[in-house]
Design goal:
Helices cover 45% and strands 12% of the residues. Helix 16 packs parallel to helix 17, helix 18 runs parallel beside helix 19 and helix 19 crosses helix 20 (520-532). 44% of the residues are buried.
Length: 940
């Protein structure tokens, strides 16, 4: 079927989610049908034109619907028959019924949605009306993709055979979706988020039966992103691997008509949950499908907690709110009970017995829940944390670092990493991100900068002490690393370097085939396969010859410009990822996970558990643990569709704001071209919404560019509307009930997630229109004076911005070798030096004494962390030498919240007297003797 649409006519952002685009197609058909019905009813002469519009809409919609169980072939044929027979009223009624069922998802539980007007006893998901099964309790609905070489005319009979296998005791209910080729199977999995399992018959052809150019582009891009292609003749197992790369959570069942025992011995079947001989055991296939869904649906801890809450428990431990009696019987606080409900208190306990488990040393349901989380994220191990990723970071750093180890870290990372270095006694070596000065924020750290730091350490003979690289992915503002490239090139220089990726904001990315490859666990999986590939080993050997051997010369400048390959025989791929589950999944606040993929984990296992004992509470919040468990369940079963919708909504906001004739005068959302310099976008990619951008360019950019932009993190420039970030944030909260969290000097950060809806987007756009109208009115009514004041305000926010200060250096006292070209320092010593009052001093920020000391000395050395919000990173750390640029930045700051700085006291500095060079041993002995003599004289 060919239709009029061309791939070039359709925006790339329309297809991040098949669901929203599908709703739009059905609404378009319904509108066309209503227009046709109106034209016929009014006997308008152009009614033929309206009929043609309905036919075109139906033709466009029809081929996409082959990938969904509902409305199914019977209802679609009914629509086609009504159109063909010239029945506009019947067409409108049926289109309305289907559209409503899709929008509300009522078809998942209401058998009437599957009926034509003429039908009365059609079965829905195997349930005939009036049977016992029809009265069964609610069961979650999903769809199963069946990839079969059978003739399409036989698919209806095959579907009915599957339905006959269903039983009233089944916990879930499903409908089959049939396709007949490799390409159509890929399209179905991409477009239909309700597909949870795939049954693949051997002997399927490759080519799609759909010839829509938009679908073709869509398919080509997704296949390119997986790197999986067909093998001549046999497409079943390559399809299994390809589908797992797109959606790893899917259960794959393979039905072979060959010697199935030999197929089972093929190493490539590790992506298949179970193999069957085609003609055997259809009931076992049905039960296996349900068992696979049950495995993902199972929440070991949450389910146990639910059962615990229903038991009559006598509590004689230190938690009065457990069971809620102290609340519901109270004369004064029973409103708390009414607000939260009884289950919260029934599910509270400080015990780890009675079916519950210990978070510190789990052996039961928490252990099982963590194993399921590890599987979901593609990790070897997972550890739940109930006091946020700040704690997760410090746990990992304490476990991996010893005093004197060097920790390469982005200076603009979360403060928990800086404190982690202090606690571990590691020496931070700060690597700088590229600045976005106009917006008072930093981007990410170029791989060239990281490589240079490692090569400098090698040149200084200190590479063996470089233990850990810590980077934030994605950053607060949405910068995503090419994680695979960073790890590969670093391992080429130091094969045993350990990586800690702080992905607090990026938990959702696991369920996007576009973002997954740029997550720590996704990239680690890719590199594991790379390092096993003989072609990669050959490429490494070739590069080794060009570079003059395996031992890289740290003074060779070409290494910084070369895409380095790691020695696959020496590399130890040790990857840790910390993730805030609560930031982008359905989890209570402070729910976090540590993910581990480390073949040498056994070497650090004891200290890892020690770090858990150090930082984890002995009284963890049971509800947070349960919500992590449930959040994992949701993402394994519907995360793909939810994440795609969040991405789609973000792209909608970007497009509408930046194209609105009024709003775009005062506000805009920054695109990738404004957030990522061109030098880091080698693919030539500009932005998703630039005309001409197609799937091929988008996928190539996500695969190859050094940095990418997470589109769900929207930097909305408000300085051009005369608002600084904090002012605009407070106004949105106070006047419009819109909440956000991050601001900069002239922007605010919005974020779409799986909780957002199109109604939320409409509210945001309405508010921006209203604010823009008020600005317009104020400028018109205020005349020239108001316009000049406005222009001056915009200039101060958008043009007169302070330069962002780079990290200077650690003061010589806190450096092992002040002459070294590497910049690591003993921040722990500086941090605890400030614990003695006599070793500190305060100077007011505007004091002339500061300017004098900047010129004449003694040097200014920070005694603590100073973190302004915004930008939200330390501009001073303990032991840092403070220069004029940092002081100028501090003086220009117009923010109210600066952690580590009290205006009434001034900057906290280490006292110059304390910072004098350390005495030699003989000098210390002489001084000690002198001190004893003075004390003795004073005593007499």
């Amino acid at each position: 079927m060919n239709v009029a649409a061309k791939a070039s006519d359709v925006r790339v952002d329309q297809f991040f989610t098949g669901t929203e685009a599908r709703f739009d197609r059905w609404r378009s058909l319904l509108q066309a049908a209503r227009a046709w019905e109106g034209a016929v009813g009014q006997q308008r002469p152009e009614k033929g034109k309206y009929l043609a519009g309905v036919s075109t809409s139906l033709a466009e919609l029809r081929q996409w619907e082959d990938f969904f169980a509902y409305p199914g072939q019977a209802l679609l044929r009914g629509l086609e028959e009504r159109v063909a027979s010239g029945d506009p009223a019947g067409t409108t009624r049926l289109a309305q019924s289907i559209s409503t069922a899709l929008l509300t998802h009522s078809y998942r539980t209401n058998h009437a949605d599957w009926e034509n007007e003429e039908q009365s006893q059609i079965s829905f998901a195997g349930k005939a009306k009036g049977t016992d099964e029809d009265a069964a309790p609610f069961r979650p609905y999903f769809e199963v993709l069946v990839v079969s070489p059978a003739r399409p005319s036989a698919w209806a009979d095959l579907a009915q055979e599957l339905r006959k296998l269903r039983r009233a005791e089944d916990k879930f209910i499903y409908e089959p979706v049939f396709v007949g080729s490799f390409e159509d199977a890929v399209l179905a999995v991409i477009l239909n988020g309700s597909i949870e399992a795939v049954v693949i018959y051997e002997g399927i052809p490759f080519a799609s039966s759909h010839h829509n150019p938009v679908l073709r582009e869509f398919l080509t891009a997704h296949l390119a992103s997986t790197g999986v292609g067909p093998e001549a003749g046999q497409y079943g197992l390559p399809l299994s691997r390809g589908l797992k790369q797109i959606r790893p959570e899917l259960d794959i069942y393979f039905l072979s008509d060959r010697e199935v025992e030999k197929v089972a011995g093929d190493m490539s079947t590790d992506c298949v949950r179970r193999l069957f001989y085609q003609v055997e055991e259809p009931l076992e296939l049905h039960l296996s499908i349900l068992d696979g869904i049950g495995d993902r649906f199972d929440t070991p801890y949450f389910s146990t907690l639910q059962k615990y809450a229903q038991r009559p428990i006598g509590t004689f431990h230190a938690l009065p709110v457990a069971r809620g009696k102290s609340i519901f019987k109270s004369n004064w606080i029973r409103d708390m009970g009414r607000f939260y409900g009884i289950n919260l208190f029934l599910a509270e306990s400080s015990a780890t017995t009675g079916g519950l488990d210990s978070l510190l040393e789990p052996t039961g349901n928490i252990k099982l829940a963590q194993e399921k989380a590890a599987r979901a994220f593609g990790a070897d191990r997972a550890f739940f944390v109930t006091n946020g990723t700040s704690t997760s970071n410090k746990m990992v750093e304490q476990a991996l670092l010893a005093p004197g180890d060097i920790m390469l870290v982005d200076r603009n990372c979360h403060k928990s990493h800086h404190y982690g270095a202090v606690l571990a006694g590691a020496f931070p070596f700060y690597v700088e991100a590229y600045p976005l000065t106009q917006y008072s924020m930093y981007g990410a750290v170029p791989v060239r900068t990281i490589k240079k730091a490692l090569l400098d350490l090698k040149a200084e003979g200190k590479l063996d002490r470089a233990r850990l690289l810590v980077l934030t992915n994605c950053t607060f503002d949405g910068h995503i690393y090419n994680v695979e490239r960073v790890m590969e090139e670093c391992l080429a220089i130091k094969p045993d370097l350990i990586f800690l990726w702080d992905e607090a904001w990026f938990a959702f990315a696991r369920w996007s085939p576009f973002y997954r490859r740029r997550t720590a666990m996704g990239a680690a999986a890719t590199l594991e396969q790379k390092f096993k590939d003989p072609a990669y080993r050959a490429a490494y050997k070739e590069q080794e010859k060009k570079l003059g051997g395996a031992d890289l010369d740290p003074h060779d400048k070409t290494l910084l410009e070369t895409r380095l390959l790691a020695n696959p025989d020496q590399v130890r791929l040790r990857v840790y990822q910390t993730t805030s589950i609560h930031k982008s999944m359905s989890c209570l606040r402070q729910g976090s996970i540590v993910l581990v993929k480390d073949p040498d984990y056994h070497q650090v296992e004891e200290q890892f558990h020690e770090a858990i004992f150090t930082h984890a509470s002995t009284s963890p919040n049971l509800q947070i643990i349960a919500s992590i468990d449930v959040a994992r369940r949701q993402m394994e079963l519907e995360g793909y569709e939810l994440v795609n919708r969040a991405i789609q909504l973000a792209l909608d906001v970007r497009r509408i704001v930046n194209s609105h004739p009024l709003v775009s005068k005062y506000f805009r959302v920054l695109g990738a071209d404004e957030m990522i310099p061109a030098e880091f976008r080698n693919s030539g990619f500009v932005d998703y919404l630039v005309p001409g951008t197609n799937w091929a360019t988008a996928v190539k950019a996500l695969r190859d560019d050094e940095f990418a932009l997470d589109v769900t993190r929207l930097t909305l420039v408000c300085g051009s509307a005369g608002f600084d970030g904090t002012q605009f944030k407070n106004m949105l909260a106070a006047d419009y009930d819109i909440q956000l969290n991050k601001t900069s000097r002239n922007s605010v950060l919005l974020q779409t997630n799986i909780n957002n809806t199109r109604s939320d987007i409409a509210q945001l756009i309405k508010v921006l229109v209203e604010i823009s109208q008020k600005i317009e009115k104020r400028l018109v009514e205020g005349g020239t004076a108001a316009q000049q004041t406005f222009a001056s305000r915009v200039k101060s926010l958008m043009t007169d911005v302070p330069n962002l200060p780079n990290f200077t250096s650690f003061f010589n006292r806190f450096r092992e070798d002040p002459s070294s070209i590497t910049g690591e320092g003993d921040m722990r010593a500086a941090f605890f030096s400030a614990y003695r009052e006599r070793q500190c001093e305060h100077l007011k920020l505007l004091s002339p004494a500061i300017d004098k000391r900047l010129k004449e000395g003694p040097e200014l050395v920070s005694a603590n962390f100073v973190i302004p919000y915004p930008p939200g990173f330390p501009i001073m750390v303990p032991g840092q030498l403070i220069d004029a640029e940092t002081i100028e930045f501090m003086r220009k700051l117009d923010v109210k919240e600066i952690h580590g700085y009290t205006a009434s006291l001034g900057l906290k500095l280490l006292n110059p007297a304390f910072l004098q060079p350390a005495k030699t041993p003989s000098e210390r002995v002489a001084n000690a003797a002198k001190s004893v003599k003075q004390k003795s004289a004073a005593a007499h």
